Amino acid sequence: MADTFLSFSTTGTGTVYTVPTADAGATPPTPPTTALVRSIRLSNQSGGAVATTVTAMDYSNSSLEIELYKDSLSDGSESEILTQPIALEQQDAIKLTGAGVKILISLMQIT
Questions:
Q1: CATH of 3-110, one of 3.30.70.20, 3.40.50.980, 3.30.470.20, 2.60.120.340
Q2: What is the phi/psi pair of residue 17, to 5°?
Q3: Model pTM greater than 0.85?
Q4: pLDDT < 50: residue spans in the chain
């Protein structure tokens, strides 16, 4: 088993991170992966308040999306939305909705 610490960031709406799917036929092979998300930090420097939603998609449960954060993020504000780490399995994802909002995700991938 290998542990890799990673950070992912983006601005705006879309999928920020998806847990890799195992693929033994790939070069190099992709092993089964679990991700432990330690931190999800939001920042709004867009010039106005932005309606912001962060969701975790549980792929193994018919792509069920669970809201982790839903609020108006005021201009100049930052927010840490996790109080405890969360575990994600293969193909689970973190998504952001909020034009101009920046997101930083810190996690550990376990393969």
A1: 2.60.120.340
A2: -150, 140
A3: yes
A4: none
